[in-house]
Design brief:
Helix content is 31%, strand content 16%. It has 179 residues and is an alpha+beta fold. The longest helix is centred in the middle third of the chain and has 14 residues, at 69-82.
């Protein structure tokens, strides 16, 4: 089984089924990026979902601006570019040949944490960066979002950003593909 299939095997709330519709043309054009197919598959399954009532995954083309990949990314890029309180994140990005205005925000938490993709010219080398909404903590994971999230939910990867009670003892998610 793939990591995406293993992630989808966690208990799901709700009756929503089927693939999640994303507006990839709009998202790629607006954000100036070509998404790796693995990320597109992830959002086609989990776009609009919420894991353990804490971590929300955005989707491209959501009607709600607070769940829309493009609007959340634009707002986060602005915040990360304008802030002077995160020089360690800017340095991390610089070492990877990136700037804050290249980040892709794929999700967020109830604690205002940022869930970013780190683009790379090679689709298989995109990474995951989680930045605490408050404070200096961050996670850097070399791999796709579905693998990162699977490892977090299985407690195989302990986040420096997420609270100790995430995930709970029986992690699951709620699908909201029309969010």
């Amino acid at each position: 089984m793939t990591d995406l299939e293993l992630l989808a095997a966690f208990p799901a709330k709700g009756k929503e089924t089927g693939m999640v519709r994303n507006d990839w043309d709009l998202a790629e054009s607006a954000l100036g990026v070509t998404f790796p197919s693995s990320f597109m598959r992830f959002l086609e399954v989990f776009g609009g979902s919420q894991f353990d009532d804490f971590l929300t995954v955005y989707r491209a083309g959501a009607n709600n601006e607070y769940l829309d990949l493009v609007s959340r990314t634009c707002a986060a890029r602005h915040a990360m570019t304008e802030t002077t309180s995160r020089p360690h994140i800017k340095e991390l990005l610089r070492r990877r040949g990136l700037a804050p205005d290249q980040l892709i925000r794929w999700g967020g938490t109830d604690n205002a944490d940022f869930c970013f993709l780190l683009p790379d010219k090679h689709p298989g080398k995109w990474g995951v960066l989680i930045v605490a909404g408050r404070g200096d903590a961050y996670d850097l994971f070399e791999g796709p979002v579905d693998t990162y999230l699977l490892h977090v939910l299985r407690r195989e990867y302990v986040s420096d950003v997420f609270p100790d009670d995430f995930p709970d003892d029986n992690p699951g998610y709620e699908r909201r593909p029309n969010a």
